[in-house]
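Progress note, sequence design subtask.
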């Protein structure tokens, strides 16, 4: 195994703008709501030559609450398009949510 080459690859992925992604994600979110979110995972995915995503997986209040939020921002260079999705456990592919606040409201209603 060529560990040097793998180290170079991991170093390149290490330059993904995760901190900036989180700053944009939480921009305008009231501090009281932001404090309730526990970030479980933040990731960068290259799905193919055209599609790249930045994703954040988080839960509200505690991991045991089972009230998760998945935020997925997709860039598709073939269509010159960036799309942001906010998903919750029960709304996944059923209801379109537009913000973290919408996700909180969704759980408050259900």
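Output:
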């Amino acid at each position: 195994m060529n560990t040097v080459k793998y180290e170079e690859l991991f170093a390149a992925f290490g330059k993904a703008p995760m901190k900036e992604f989180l700053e944009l994600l939480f921009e305008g979110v009231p501090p009281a709501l932001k404090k309730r979110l526990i970030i479980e995972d933040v990731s960068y995915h290259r799905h193919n030559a055209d599609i790249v995503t930045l994703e954040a997986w988080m839960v509200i209040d505690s991991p045991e609450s089972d009230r998760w939020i998945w935020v997925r921002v997709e860039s598709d260079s073939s269509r010159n398009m960036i799309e942001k999705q906010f998903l919750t456990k029960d709304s996944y592919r059923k209801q379109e949510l537009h913000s973290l606040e919408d996700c909180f409201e969704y759980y408050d209603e259900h």
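The first helix runs from residue 3 to 13. Work on this subtask will continue into the next period as scheduled.
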